[in-house]
Amino acid sequence: MSYRKVDIDALDEEKYVEENVQTKSNEEIASSVNSKVHEVRQILSRGQHAQALSRALDDPPYGQDVQELKDTTTQVVMEVLSSTKLSDIPNVVKSLAPEELDVLMKYLYRGMASPEQYNCSVILSWHEKVIATTGLGSIIRVLTDRNTV
After folding, report:
1. Which of 84, 120, 141, 142 could form a disulfide with 49, with the two C-beta atoms 3.0–4.6 Å apart?
2. Interacting residues of 52 by C-beta distance below 8 A, sequence separation 6+
């Protein structure tokens, strides 16, 4: 007779299967990402960095079968980060919601993973300002979240 009520063997990391977190088809996600990229670049051309970043962080694509769309979204987020003046970063960070800051932190770590593609000094500047605003909790939430960007 077993006294154990929770099947701990089912919680094994090696047996984890990612749930399909997207309810949209890949075509719908692609259309959404492409329109978002166009919209973000228009907002950015008007010099509205906070609004452009907020829009870029909105509804990121999750899942294993949308890697190309994740790359496109990451590229757009990095364009916004790179085009923002260093003195404007604190104001932009303060204008973002806590959920947006966590998504931004995911993109910052994604950018750090590809130093040959993205400017790490820009990423580290943003990282510093986000941590000053959110504290260390944002790092923990990003590292423990299974939904990657």
Report:
1. 84
2. 40, 43, 44, 80
In this structure, what token pair is assigned to residue 75? 């590229």
The whole-angstrom separation of Cα 135 and Cα 21 is 28
In a domain, 20, yes or no: no
Mean pLDDT (the chain) is 90
3-state SS, residue 98: helix
- 133/88 Cα distance (integer angstroms): 14
pLDDT surpasses 90 at 64? no
- CB within 8 Å of 51: residues ≥ 6 apart: 43
6: which DSSP letter?
Answer: S
Residue 60 sits in which domain range?
26-144
Ranking 50-54, 63-67, 70-74 by mean pLDDT, the lowest is: 63-67
Cα–Cα distance, 94 to 141 (Å, whole number): 19
Flag whether pLDDT at 111 surpasses 70.
yes
Report which of 43, 121, 120 is spatially closest to residue 80, judged by C-alpha positions: 43
Cβ atoms of residues 74 and 113 within 8 Å: no
The verdict on residue 128 lying in a domain is: yes
pLDDT band at 146 (very low <50, low <70, confident <90, very high): confident
